[in-house]
Amino acid sequence: MVSVKTLPVDENLQVQVPTETKQALERRAVDDRVPMRVVVLRALSTYGIAVPQEAIRDRRKTSA
Q1: Average pLDDT, the chain
Q2: Of 2, 30, 43, 49, which sits 20 to 30 A from 13 (CA to CA)?
Q3: Which candidate, 23, 64, 59, 62, places its Cα nearest to that of 41?
Q4: Which pLDDT score, from 0 to 100, does residue 46 have?
């Protein structure tokens, strides 16, 4: 029997933030050259929220 690794399912989270907060997130994403999702997950992790390390990566970059 072949073992199949199941990938964690991502949930949608929609929040409203002040304009300057969103702009700061966008700037950080551009500066770090990562999606805003990565910036937010890093911030949550730093704050002590459980975030799997494999989730904190740019999914647009794939290893060949």
Answers
A1: 87
A2: 30
A3: 59
A4: 96
SS3 state at 53? helix
- Residue 16 tokens, joined: 């409203």
Q: What are phi and psi of 48, to 5 degrees?
A: 105, 5
For residues 39-56, average pLDDT: 94
Query: Which tokens belong to 47?
Result: 């704050």
Does residue 58 contact residue 34 with C-beta atoms inside 8 Å?
A: yes
User: Side chain identity at 28, as an amino acid letter?
Assistant: R
